[in-house]
Structures are given as C-alpha cells and as structure tokens.
Amino acid sequence: MPVSNPLWPAQLDHFRLDSDVPQALCAFYCQALGLEASPQADGTTLLDGPGRRLLIGTGRRGEQPFIAFRLPNTSQLAALAARLTDRGLELLPSPTPLFQVGALAVRDPDGRQVVFGLPRPHLSPGGRPTSLGVLPGRLQHVVVASQNLGPMLRFYEHGLGMVVSDTVREEDGTPTVGFLRTDPEHHSFAVFRAPQSRPDHHSYECTCWNDIRDWADHLAGLRIPLWWGPGRHGPGNNLFFMFQDPQGYLIELSAELEVVPDEVRGRFWKHEERTLNLWGPGFMRS
Known about the structure:
There is one protein chain. By secondary structure, the chain is an alpha/beta fold. The protein has 2 domains: 11-119, 2,3-Dihydroxybiphenyl 1,2-Dioxygenase, domain 1 (Roll); 138-276, Roll (2,3-Dihydroxybiphenyl 1,2-Dioxygenase, domain 1). The protein has 5 helices and 17 strands. It is globular and about 50 Å long.
C-alpha cells in the first residue's frame, strides 16, 4: 500500500456494545466466546480473550457507540490525524479506556465514532488464556447496516482512507454493499444497505475449517443454535457461520478470509443471495 495512505496498516482492536442489561450480556459473551470480564474506570466492562476483546456498556439495547482500530506507532497516528484534519473531519477525544493518551476519534454519517490509537501496554490485545483459549478466534471485522450507504462508503473510503476490496451492485449499478480493508485481509469493515442504520455483525477469524467445527460443537454444548450457515461468502471467500447474542446482534466465526494483493481494488458482485453464500441461502439486508 502506498505510504501516502497513513491508515495503512490498521487492525480492528475492539468495539463497544451497549445494553440495558449489561451483566447478562457480559455473561453470555464470556461463556460463548471464552472471555474474561474486568471492570473499567469509565463504567464499561472489558471482555478479554486470546486475540479478541470488546467492551460492554450500559445504554440503549444493541447500540454500538464506537469501533476502535489500532495503529503500530505514534508517527502513523500523527500522519493519520493530519490527513483527517485535511479532509475537514472533526477530531474528537477518544472514548475508549483501552488506548493510550493521544488516541483520536471521528464520527461517521450514522453517528458512530471510529477510534484510532495505540493500545495501553498493560491492556495490549492478545488476551489472557481462558477455558476456550485453545479455540482460535481473532477479532477480525465489524459490519454495519445503514440507510445512508452512499455517504457511509464515501466517508470510510475517501475520508478515512480505507480501501474498497469488493462492492455488491444491483443490475443498474446501484451499490448495496461495500467491503473495505485497512490491511491485506479482505475487509476489516463493511456496510450493507438497509432500511435503518444499525449494527449488523462482528466476526472472529479462525485458522481452518476444523476450528469452525470445534466452535460449532462448543456452542452446541451451550445449546446456542447456529443462525446462518455453515457456508462460504462470495466477497472474501471465507467459510463462516453466525449465531445471535441475546439482543439479536449477530456473531460470525470465519476461516480462510481472502488476503488481497495491494493492486486489487473495487471488484464487483451481483446483488443476489448467491453472492452472500455460495453454498445456499443468503441473508439479504435489502
């Protein structure tokens, strides 16, 4: 990726999810994803595991106040801040307790904050070993649905500097989905056209098909049913299945997500079920 893009590379580090019953939601995620809970000074709870973590806060059910990307060093963070300012974006104070002083945020067209920073040394991603520590599941991407698809795609591509890997379009060329990357993996963020703006799902990357099997067996032992899949997405070419948390937010277990060469940008897919699942029924947001 050209050095002129100061976002490159960045990786999804964590996100915040709110609930009116945060303790119950924390208990679900700890059990389902093998996470350990620790309270934070801002009133949120950190759920932490090997390669995966999120914050649970008290608020409106299903609200996702922010997503947070980690950068490798302060020089890149400073260059990104300059780019964002040059594009007329307002820099906001970081809302996350997990990043070092100097982290920054901007607000997307749907009101969600996107945070960039460096993890605090004592809270570096990786997580503590848990009872599920042997099951790989690195937090890999967050996907949202939006009634403002055009402005959202422009914000994330032209404002933040994410690179479009694939776009799904109707026959007349109208876009319905955009998949964007911040490092060589196919997407760390995506946005679907939908009747209302809301979180869609968050995904954890495994190492192989056998991991998908083992995660499904683990969930079966907890009597948590699969909601969609197993299957294979078109864009990204990854194996997957999804299940729901108690608030209806979708959680994806994924494997073999495509690694995209730098020169590949803006491929197109047809708006149809097969694009979303090469093996069977698709989940159509619009």
